[in-house]
Write a structure and sequence with these properties.
This protein is α/β, with parallel strands linked by helices. The protein has eleven helices and eleven strands. It is globular, with a radius of gyration of 19 Å. The chain starts with a strand and ends with a strand. Strand 9, helix 9 and strand 10 form a beta-alpha-beta unit. It has two domains: 183 residues, Rossmann fold, CATH 3.40.50.1100; 82 residues, Rossmann fold, CATH 3.40.50. The protein has a seven-stranded mixed sheet with strand order 1-2-3-11-8-9-10. A four-stranded parallel sheet has the order 6-5-4-7.
Length: 298
Protein backbone atom coordinates (compact mmCIF):
# COMPACT_ATOMS: atom_id res chain seq x y z
CA UNK A 1 0.00 0.00 0.00
CA UNK A 2 1.23 3.48 -0.85
CA UNK A 3 0.35 6.18 1.68
CA UNK A 4 0.25 9.57 0.00
CA UNK A 5 -0.28 11.84 3.01
CA UNK A 6 -0.06 11.65 6.80
CA UNK A 7 -2.28 13.03 9.51
CA UNK A 8 -1.25 14.30 12.95
CA UNK A 9 -3.85 12.65 15.17
CA UNK A 10 -2.79 14.76 18.14
CA UNK A 11 -3.73 18.03 16.44
CA UNK A 12 -7.15 19.68 17.04
CA UNK A 13 -7.80 19.24 13.33
CA UNK A 14 -6.01 18.00 10.26
CA UNK A 15 -5.43 19.48 6.82
CA UNK A 16 -5.61 16.13 5.09
CA UNK A 17 -6.27 12.47 5.78
CA UNK A 18 -4.19 9.60 4.36
CA UNK A 19 -4.74 8.45 0.79
CA UNK A 20 -3.84 4.79 0.26
CA UNK A 21 -3.60 2.93 -3.02
CA UNK A 22 -5.18 -0.52 -2.75
CA UNK A 23 -4.04 -3.27 -5.10
CA UNK A 24 -7.20 -5.30 -5.63
CA UNK A 25 -7.23 -7.75 -8.52
CA UNK A 26 -10.97 -7.31 -9.03
CA UNK A 27 -10.26 -3.74 -10.11
CA UNK A 28 -6.83 -4.33 -11.63
CA UNK A 29 -8.21 -7.04 -13.91
CA UNK A 30 -10.36 -4.34 -15.53
CA UNK A 31 -7.52 -1.81 -15.72
CA UNK A 32 -8.95 0.25 -12.86
CA UNK A 33 -6.86 1.80 -10.05
CA UNK A 34 -8.34 2.13 -6.57
CA UNK A 35 -7.37 4.47 -3.73
CA UNK A 36 -9.02 4.67 -0.30
CA UNK A 37 -9.25 8.11 1.28
CA UNK A 38 -8.84 7.33 5.00
CA UNK A 39 -11.05 10.05 6.42
CA UNK A 40 -11.66 7.73 9.36
CA UNK A 41 -8.16 8.79 10.50
CA UNK A 42 -8.65 12.54 10.17
CA UNK A 43 -9.21 13.08 13.91
CA UNK A 44 -9.23 10.70 16.88
CA UNK A 45 -12.60 11.90 18.23
CA UNK A 46 -14.16 13.45 15.10
CA UNK A 47 -13.46 10.86 12.41
CA UNK A 48 -14.43 10.99 8.78
CA UNK A 49 -17.14 13.17 7.39
CA UNK A 50 -18.12 14.22 10.92
CA UNK A 51 -15.01 16.40 11.12
CA UNK A 52 -15.73 17.97 7.74
CA UNK A 53 -19.44 18.45 8.43
CA UNK A 54 -18.92 20.05 11.82
CA UNK A 55 -15.98 22.29 10.89
CA UNK A 56 -17.96 25.26 9.57
CA UNK A 57 -20.97 24.60 11.79
CA UNK A 58 -18.68 25.14 14.78
CA UNK A 59 -17.18 28.25 13.20
CA UNK A 60 -20.66 29.69 12.62
CA UNK A 61 -21.75 28.81 16.15
CA UNK A 62 -18.69 30.62 17.51
CA UNK A 63 -19.29 33.64 15.25
CA UNK A 64 -22.89 34.00 16.41
CA UNK A 65 -21.90 33.80 20.06
CA UNK A 66 -23.68 30.52 20.70
CA UNK A 67 -22.63 28.58 23.76
CA UNK A 68 -24.71 25.44 23.23
CA UNK A 69 -25.14 23.08 20.28
CA UNK A 70 -28.36 21.09 19.85
CA UNK A 71 -28.81 18.25 17.41
CA UNK A 72 -30.87 15.13 16.75
CA UNK A 73 -30.10 11.44 16.34
CA UNK A 74 -31.04 7.84 16.97
CA UNK A 75 -29.78 5.73 19.84
CA UNK A 76 -26.68 4.59 17.92
CA UNK A 77 -25.98 7.86 16.13
CA UNK A 78 -22.34 8.54 15.27
CA UNK A 79 -23.38 12.15 14.72
CA UNK A 80 -24.46 12.50 18.36
CA UNK A 81 -21.10 11.09 19.46
CA UNK A 82 -19.21 13.49 17.21
CA UNK A 83 -21.22 16.54 18.29
CA UNK A 84 -20.65 15.68 21.94
CA UNK A 85 -16.93 15.27 21.30
CA UNK A 86 -16.77 18.56 19.38
CA UNK A 87 -18.51 20.37 22.21
CA UNK A 88 -16.02 19.03 24.74
CA UNK A 89 -13.05 19.88 22.52
CA UNK A 90 -14.12 23.39 21.58
CA UNK A 91 -15.98 24.59 24.66
CA UNK A 92 -19.65 24.26 23.73
CA UNK A 93 -22.42 22.77 25.78
CA UNK A 94 -24.30 20.08 23.85
CA UNK A 95 -27.84 18.73 23.82
CA UNK A 96 -28.79 15.60 21.94
CA UNK A 97 -32.45 14.96 21.16
CA UNK A 98 -32.73 11.18 20.89
CA UNK A 99 -35.41 9.28 19.00
CA UNK A 100 -37.15 6.81 21.33
CA UNK A 101 -38.74 7.98 24.58
CA UNK A 102 -38.56 4.46 25.99
CA UNK A 103 -34.76 4.59 25.91
CA UNK A 104 -34.64 7.06 28.80
CA UNK A 105 -35.09 4.29 31.37
CA UNK A 106 -32.67 1.82 29.75
CA UNK A 107 -28.99 1.26 30.22
CA UNK A 108 -26.96 3.47 27.89
CA UNK A 109 -25.37 1.87 24.85
CA UNK A 110 -21.76 2.72 23.98
CA UNK A 111 -22.70 5.65 21.70
CA UNK A 112 -24.99 7.35 24.22
CA UNK A 113 -22.61 6.63 27.09
CA UNK A 114 -19.78 8.25 25.13
CA UNK A 115 -21.94 11.32 24.46
CA UNK A 116 -22.86 11.69 28.12
CA UNK A 117 -19.24 11.26 29.18
CA UNK A 118 -18.38 14.22 26.92
CA UNK A 119 -21.00 16.35 28.67
CA UNK A 120 -23.95 15.99 26.29
CA UNK A 121 -27.40 16.35 27.83
CA UNK A 122 -29.62 13.66 26.33
CA UNK A 123 -33.29 14.45 25.76
CA UNK A 124 -35.40 11.42 24.85
CA UNK A 125 -38.57 12.02 22.83
CA UNK A 126 -41.19 9.73 21.34
CA UNK A 127 -41.06 8.97 17.65
CA UNK A 128 -43.98 11.21 16.79
CA UNK A 129 -42.24 14.18 18.41
CA UNK A 130 -38.97 13.27 16.70
CA UNK A 131 -40.64 13.44 13.29
CA UNK A 132 -41.29 17.14 14.03
CA UNK A 133 -37.55 17.84 14.40
CA UNK A 134 -37.51 20.33 11.52
CA UNK A 135 -40.62 22.24 12.59
CA UNK A 136 -40.28 25.72 14.13
CA UNK A 137 -42.85 24.82 16.78
CA UNK A 138 -40.74 22.01 18.26
CA UNK A 139 -37.58 24.10 18.11
CA UNK A 140 -39.38 26.88 19.99
CA UNK A 141 -40.46 24.37 22.65
CA UNK A 142 -36.88 23.16 23.01
CA UNK A 143 -35.57 26.71 23.36
CA UNK A 144 -38.20 27.47 25.99
CA UNK A 145 -37.15 24.36 27.92
CA UNK A 146 -33.37 24.38 27.50
CA UNK A 147 -32.42 27.93 26.51
CA UNK A 148 -30.94 29.25 23.29
CA UNK A 149 -28.78 27.00 21.10
CA UNK A 150 -27.13 26.68 17.72
CA UNK A 151 -29.05 24.06 15.73
CA UNK A 152 -27.20 21.33 13.82
CA UNK A 153 -29.59 19.07 11.88
CA UNK A 154 -29.76 15.29 12.11
CA UNK A 155 -26.68 13.82 10.49
CA UNK A 156 -25.06 17.25 10.43
CA UNK A 157 -26.02 17.90 6.79
CA UNK A 158 -26.63 21.56 5.99
CA UNK A 159 -24.97 24.30 3.94
CA UNK A 160 -22.06 24.58 6.40
CA UNK A 161 -21.47 20.82 6.17
CA UNK A 162 -21.52 20.92 2.38
CA UNK A 163 -18.80 23.59 2.33
CA UNK A 164 -16.67 21.51 4.70
CA UNK A 165 -16.97 18.37 2.58
CA UNK A 166 -16.23 20.39 -0.57
CA UNK A 167 -12.63 20.74 0.66
CA UNK A 168 -11.89 17.02 0.25
CA UNK A 169 -11.13 16.97 -3.52
CA UNK A 170 -8.32 19.52 -3.07
CA UNK A 171 -6.48 16.87 -1.01
CA UNK A 172 -6.41 14.35 -3.86
CA UNK A 173 -3.06 14.36 -5.68
CA UNK A 174 -3.50 11.16 -7.69
CA UNK A 175 -4.80 10.60 -11.26
CA UNK A 176 -8.42 9.93 -10.36
CA UNK A 177 -11.59 10.20 -12.41
CA UNK A 178 -14.25 9.28 -9.87
CA UNK A 179 -14.81 9.81 -6.13
CA UNK A 180 -17.16 7.32 -4.43
CA UNK A 181 -18.86 7.86 -1.07
CA UNK A 182 -21.60 6.24 1.00
CA UNK A 183 -24.73 8.37 1.42
CA UNK A 184 -27.09 8.65 4.36
CA UNK A 185 -28.33 12.24 4.32
CA UNK A 186 -26.42 13.32 1.20
CA UNK A 187 -24.34 16.13 2.68
CA UNK A 188 -20.96 14.54 2.02
CA UNK A 189 -21.78 13.77 -1.62
CA UNK A 190 -23.18 17.27 -2.11
CA UNK A 191 -19.95 18.82 -0.88
CA UNK A 192 -17.51 16.50 -2.64
CA UNK A 193 -19.32 16.93 -5.95
CA UNK A 194 -19.29 20.72 -5.57
CA UNK A 195 -15.54 20.71 -4.92
CA UNK A 196 -14.52 18.54 -7.84
CA UNK A 197 -12.32 19.91 -10.61
CA UNK A 198 -13.82 19.88 -14.08
CA UNK A 199 -13.72 16.47 -15.72
CA UNK A 200 -14.08 14.51 -12.48
CA UNK A 201 -17.28 12.90 -11.18
CA UNK A 202 -18.75 11.73 -7.86
CA UNK A 203 -20.81 8.62 -7.20
CA UNK A 204 -22.88 8.25 -4.05
CA UNK A 205 -24.06 4.87 -2.77
CA UNK A 206 -27.37 5.10 -0.94
CA UNK A 207 -27.47 3.09 2.29
CA UNK A 208 -31.23 3.50 2.67
CA UNK A 209 -34.05 2.28 0.47
CA UNK A 210 -35.73 4.77 -1.82
CA UNK A 211 -34.80 7.29 -4.47
CA UNK A 212 -35.03 10.48 -2.42
CA UNK A 213 -31.32 11.27 -2.09
CA UNK A 214 -30.92 12.82 -5.53
CA UNK A 215 -33.38 15.53 -4.54
CA UNK A 216 -31.79 15.94 -1.10
CA UNK A 217 -28.27 16.34 -2.53
CA UNK A 218 -29.47 18.95 -5.02
CA UNK A 219 -31.33 20.82 -2.25
CA UNK A 220 -28.23 20.90 -0.04
CA UNK A 221 -26.11 22.25 -2.88
CA UNK A 222 -28.65 24.99 -3.55
CA UNK A 223 -28.64 25.91 0.13
CA UNK A 224 -24.85 26.18 0.09
CA UNK A 225 -24.26 27.77 -3.31
CA UNK A 226 -27.59 28.85 -4.75
CA UNK A 227 -27.27 26.24 -7.52
CA UNK A 228 -26.42 22.60 -8.16
CA UNK A 229 -22.77 21.89 -8.93
CA UNK A 230 -20.59 19.12 -10.26
CA UNK A 231 -21.04 15.85 -12.12
CA UNK A 232 -22.64 13.40 -9.70
CA UNK A 233 -25.29 10.75 -9.29
CA UNK A 234 -26.71 8.43 -6.61
CA UNK A 235 -26.56 4.63 -6.99
CA UNK A 236 -29.47 2.93 -5.20
CA UNK A 237 -28.84 -0.76 -5.94
CA UNK A 238 -26.56 -1.62 -3.02
CA UNK A 239 -28.46 -0.70 0.16
CA UNK A 240 -28.60 -4.43 1.07
CA UNK A 241 -32.08 -4.23 2.56
CA UNK A 242 -32.07 -0.72 4.00
CA UNK A 243 -30.43 1.32 6.73
CA UNK A 244 -28.33 -0.72 9.20
CA UNK A 245 -29.33 -3.94 7.40
CA UNK A 246 -26.86 -6.37 5.92
CA UNK A 247 -26.97 -9.45 3.73
CA UNK A 248 -24.75 -12.54 4.08
CA UNK A 249 -23.01 -11.43 0.86
CA UNK A 250 -22.19 -8.02 2.34
CA UNK A 251 -20.85 -9.55 5.55
CA UNK A 252 -18.68 -11.99 3.60
CA UNK A 253 -17.41 -9.15 1.40
CA UNK A 254 -16.40 -6.86 4.27
CA UNK A 255 -14.62 -9.70 6.09
CA UNK A 256 -12.76 -10.64 2.91
CA UNK A 257 -11.81 -7.01 2.15
CA UNK A 258 -10.30 -6.58 5.61
CA UNK A 259 -8.36 -9.83 5.23
CA UNK A 260 -7.04 -8.76 1.82
CA UNK A 261 -6.15 -5.14 2.61
CA UNK A 262 -6.16 -4.66 6.38
CA UNK A 263 -8.93 -2.05 6.13
CA UNK A 264 -12.08 -2.69 8.18
CA UNK A 265 -15.37 -1.67 6.56
CA UNK A 266 -18.53 -1.02 8.55
CA UNK A 267 -21.67 -2.67 7.18
CA UNK A 268 -23.90 0.39 7.60
CA UNK A 269 -22.10 2.81 5.29
CA UNK A 270 -18.64 2.20 3.83
CA UNK A 271 -19.04 -1.53 3.37
CA UNK A 272 -22.04 -1.01 1.10
CA UNK A 273 -20.18 1.57 -0.95
CA UNK A 274 -17.17 -0.69 -1.46
CA UNK A 275 -19.39 -3.71 -2.10
CA UNK A 276 -21.16 -1.76 -4.84
CA UNK A 277 -17.95 -0.39 -6.34
CA UNK A 278 -16.42 -3.86 -6.53
CA UNK A 279 -19.52 -5.36 -8.12
CA UNK A 280 -19.59 -2.57 -10.70
CA UNK A 281 -15.88 -3.02 -11.46
CA UNK A 282 -16.29 -6.76 -11.93
CA UNK A 283 -19.25 -6.10 -14.24
CA UNK A 284 -17.06 -3.87 -16.40
CA UNK A 285 -18.93 -0.65 -15.64
CA UNK A 286 -15.70 1.37 -15.42
CA UNK A 287 -13.54 1.81 -18.50
CA UNK A 288 -9.92 0.68 -18.43
CA UNK A 289 -7.65 3.42 -17.14
CA UNK A 290 -10.20 4.78 -14.66
CA UNK A 291 -8.89 5.94 -11.30
CA UNK A 292 -11.31 5.68 -8.36
CA UNK A 293 -11.00 7.26 -4.91
CA UNK A 294 -13.29 5.56 -2.37
CA UNK A 295 -13.85 7.69 0.72
CA UNK A 296 -13.82 5.83 4.05
CA UNK A 297 -16.02 8.21 5.97
CA UNK A 298 -15.96 6.31 9.25
Amino acid sequence: MEVRTKVDAAAPGAAASPLVEVGDERFAARGVRLWVKRDDLIHPQLPGNKFRKLKYNLAEARATGARTLLTFGGAYSNHLRATAAAGALFGFGTIGVVRGHELASRERNASLAFAEERGMRLVFVDRETYRRRGEPGLLAELRAEYGDFFLIPEGGSNAHAVRGCAELPAELDVPYDLVAVACGTGGTLAGIAAGLPQGRAALGFAVLKGDFLTGDVARLQRQAYGETRGDWRVETAYHCGGYARATPELRAFTADFEQRHGIALDEVYVGKMMFGLTAMAEAGEFRAGTGIVAVKTG
